[in-house]
Input
Amino acid sequence: TSGEVSWEFILTPTAGGGVGEVFEINRTFIIDPLAPVVVETNIRHYDHRVSSNLQYLTINITDQPVLPSNVSLMLWTEWANDLNGDGWPNAGEFVERSLNIPSNLNTSFGTYTAFIDDTSGFLGEKVAGYVVGSDFAGHELIEGGSEITDDHLFMYQLRSDGEPVGDSDGFNWNGGKRAWLHPDQTYGLDVSLTEPNGVSDIHEIEISLADNSVSDRLTMQWDSTTRQCTSYTLHIVITSCQLLDSNGGIPTAFDQELILHMELTPQWTMPDLGDTYREPFVKITDRSGNEDIVSYPQNRWRFSAEMKIPDNQTLWVENGVITEDGARVSPNSLIELSGTVLFAKSNELPQFDCDVEV
Output
């Protein structure tokens, strides 16, 4: 499985025969059990670049005992190779290009390079590519991508690096503005933002429902790696979280107008600060470290767990008479008392069952 194997062939005559000048041959074979692997490229799976006639591409490949020399770049440009006009690379649209091979192949790690001229493309158009090849033993290159949709090795859009922007009025509770939040109630929240380089360039989105609080800012975070939200407070449970496009659908890599939709539930452990307002805050960070911070004083809110039964209950009796202060009923008559349980500060109906003692 490793090392070297030597083969020797010897020609031995019989019955007194002679031999030629060469009667013994030795050949040594190097055992190569490993396939070459692409481990890194300087352009991400989804990225952006300023247009250039010398766009530099590096692809790092590892292999043992020697690096492959038979490696090619399969390149797609939207302005020249998008045969079906859908703005995305498809099978049969990539064109083979040569790569610059490392001068020393007797190492376990090498950098393969190419220069791409993308000056013919318009702002917003895309370039994508993958690599193919094999080593001296015939092992096919792996992790180099393919022509299958979204399985490319790299893709970039012709656009300069821009900063993300949170909308000044982009903090919206589903169902309208809420001055009060209550425990065990699930609220929908939409946070609107713009990322000029698309959703693929967002690193994280941090939301604090109480940025002005010293003890607990009620912070939650959306992470680009997991594409999920994490609550960093015991007082908020996130039931669902999704980054959407402006129409509420799944965004493509370069969609700029985005909405982070969350379903969250305050817990009964949330401190009741009385008439003290909590102020929301949003911080958006992209992969280059650019960030935007937006506060929403117009969306300040308070918390209350206080509940009430309004003094408007209705009384029904099966056998009897309703009076001004109640009713007079006969023995064994059914009595029905009906009313509503509400949160006292907002008259919001609870989303859970309540036990009422009479």
